[in-house]
Amino acid sequence: MAVAIGVRVRLFARLREQAGFETEALEVAPGSTLGDVYDNLRRNHPALEPNRDVVRGAVNQEFSDWDTVVSQGDEVAFIPPVSGGF
Amino acid sequence: MRYDVTTGPIDARELEAAVAHPGAGAICTFTGIVRDNSRGQSVTHLDYEAFAEMAVPQMRHIGQEIKDRWPGARVAMAHRTGKLEVGEVSVVVCVSAPHREEAIAACKWGIDTLKESVPIWKKEHAADGTYWIEGDAAKPA
Q1: Average pLDDT, whole number, for chain A?
Q2: CATH code for B2-135?
Q3: Residues of B in contact with A17 (CB under 8 A)
Q4: Considering only CA atoms, which of A63, A83, A71 is closest in space to residue A37?
């Protein structure tokens, strides 16, 4: 069994500015959830939004729940509440 | 059906042409424009950022739902990204349908749903500072 799986993290808007990166490769333990990935990311980037209630996660471009388990090679995106329009 | 996230100007007439057909007696077009004020402050310009690989499928999903709810409807949507000045068009939603009631209702539902669920963000450059707009909240950038 793999000791770690690799995911590609993408951040947008305010979260991107807080963390100071747009995309980053991250290794997490097998069985990690979307929530685990975010917590992991926050340990490396403490400026990142602490309140997960105002963040949504997406796996491979689909909105996903925090308890979704991620897989090797997944694209994991974290996004703030949207504000498109006018 | 046409769904675009684009850095260039949006031509509403072009989207109308994309949904027009002989069975459609009505086309409803919503055009969103950058306003010169927000939250009581004057606004100089906006920066829009999109998660394009997700925004376009999300728009397509809204279009599909419109077609399910209002049979016979055709949909086109475009959202602009990058720096937009006051008066520029940021978003267009265009729906054709056999009759005006469906076209108007579907277009309203389309723009309301786009604002709630399509991953696009605006950064507002206002007289009192720069803010990321998140839903109804404005957070200092």
Answers
A1: 95
A2: 3.90.1170.40
A3: 132, 141
A4: A71
